[in-house]
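User: I'm writing a tutorial on reading structure tokens. Could you give me a worked example: one chain, its sequence, then its tokens, then a sentence or two explaining what the tokens reveal?
Assistant: Sure. Here is the example chain.
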Amino acid sequence: MPKDTNGNNHILKESKGWITYRSEIKVLDCTIRDGGLMNDHKFNNDFIKAVYSTCVKAGIDYMELGYKADKKIFAPSSYGNWKFCNEDDIKKIVGENETSLKLSVMADAERTDYHTDILPKSESVIDMIRTATYIHQVPTAIEIIKDAHDKGYETTVNLMAISAIQERELDAGLEAFAASPVGTIYLVDSFGALYQEQIQYLIRKYLSYAKPNGKIVGIHAHNNQQLAYANTICALIEGSNMLDATIDGMGRGAGNCSLELLLGFLHNPKFHLRPVLECLQNHVRPLQESLRWGFEVPYMITGQLNQHPRAAMKFLAGEDRKKYVQFYDSIIEEE
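And here are its predicted structure tokens:
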């Protein structure tokens, strides 16, 4: 069988003219967590239940519910339940979650009281703690990872904004995570700025640290340049086995890799597209007009310039939201 660049059996196998699937690949739906960034996590329980039921029916491996945010930093009166993911609120949706679907939450470095708010696994229906960190927060992130691991959880780390850090810093961060108990190290394209060649290079780099230490590499892509799906497939081909996606690409700004596109590509019979389309039609798409996610020209501009999309989000919320040249000129002037 042909080998890939890492010496593994090639990821996509020809079988009677069609393509088979790689059983090691896991899909994580982060519709609620990423989508919650647009409405301060104020989804009602019916919407959460609809996405949960969809993930179960569709055969998704993991569903991310939201954050474990520190209530001393984020006032509960200003946010919905899914900013904090209290155990009682989760159980109102999933009960004891007697399904094959695993549940995850995200802990932001320096924004999570993980000692108090993350219970031992034996007392929680949550299965996995995902730690999000910037490069300067790596020591704190590793402490969160160690705490979650010791409490019995699966763990991942999302190193954000890597397109804006120096390679020596990235290498140092990856080396530190490789030596930690984290299970999966995620490549995160925070600004939607990366192209295929960069994804290839970075996934190979991540694997060079992760694989010798028995760890998995994941991909979380943003759609500023309409490349979230393509870059996710590229990462998959290079050896990424944890793939993030959201229903209808729902997420802050330009959004994410679309779950419905990804499932169609994977060809794994354990995944079922129809429940995802039903949820998209009946629950997700109706929110499009009020929450406004997806590709827009200003997101393309910030992506091409490797900038955080916050300027584009602010611009698109104003009255001049269609004056793309005006936005482009204002961004270039700040360069």
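What the tokens reveal: The chain has two domains: 22-290, 296-334. Residues 1-5, 9-17 have pLDDT under 50 and may be disordered.
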